[in-house]
Amino acid sequence: MNINFHVFIDNLVSTIEAKDLYTAGHSTRVADLAFIIAEHMNYNKEFCEKIHIAGHLHDIGKIGIPDGILLKSGKLTKSEFEVIKDHPLIGFEILKNNPSLKDVPLIIKHHHEKFDGTGYPDQLKSDDIPIGSRIIAVADSFDAMVTRRTYKSAITFESAIEELLTESHKQFDKNIVDNFLDVIKDREKLSNIKNIFSLS
Ligand SMILES: [Fe+2]
Ligand SMILES: [Fe+2]
């Protein structure tokens, strides 16, 4: 039996997206944008491929979050948010024993760390955060901003870019944000990205 690994990863992610309609498509968009940024940063093919897979799987741990919290339509309470914050660790636990994923589980574990050390689960700072997690963090937040959520309206492409810049060195690695800004100077790549996010 020859299972196409990438297709299987997609199937796995569909299990969580079948439950959570609001994040349906989120993982694919994050995977595609993170891949474009990594490629632009001149990482080799193997690394970019790994980032793509980590992007697909980054929120897989949400499968372990109770529906009442995951699917809540209003703003989360403080204690509900604490439960949501378990998803990077749950994802790490689900995938950690698969040697062919290499450090993908670790990238997933740290995708909500912030550059200034105020993120979770380990409050890692700057270069201590795996580079893959830092790239996914930028793509993840960008998608959250331009995609309409239950309790927040989407913001425009331009405002999302500005927000990424404002948060550089606080939430994000400025070098990655700068690379993103550099990517969108290329007309073809900009239109690719707008297509991924269904923006005009
Ligand atoms: Fe997440
Ligand atoms: Fe996410």
What can you tell me about this protein's structure?
The longest helix has 16 residues, at 131-146. This protein is 57% helix and 0% strand. The chain has 200 residues and is an all-alpha fold. The protein has eleven helices and no strands. The model has no long low-confidence stretch (mean pLDDT 92). The structure holds fe (ii) ion (FE2) (2 copies). One fe (ii) ion is lined by residues 26, 30, 58-59, 140. Residues 26, 30, 58-59, 140 line the site of one fe (ii) ion (FE2).
Using the 3D structure, state the CATH architecture.
Orthogonal Bundle
Give the total of domains: 1
Radius of gyration: 16 Å
Helical coverage, percent range = 55-70%
Return the structural class.
mainly alpha
User: Which percent band covers the strand fraction?
Assistant: under 5%
The CATH topology is given as: Hypothetical protein af1432
- The overall average pLDDT, rounded, is 92
Relevant CATH superfamily: Hypothetical protein af1432
What order do the helices and strands follow? Answer: HHHHHHHHHHH
Listed once per kind, the bound small molecules are: fe (ii) ion
- How many DSSP helices? 11
The tally of beta strands, per DSSP, is: 0
Overall CATH class: Mainly Alpha
What would you call the shape?
A: globular
Q: Would you identify the regions where 5 or more consecutive residues have pLDDT less than 50?
A: none
Termini, distance in Å? 42 Å
Taking the sheet with the most strands, its summary is: none
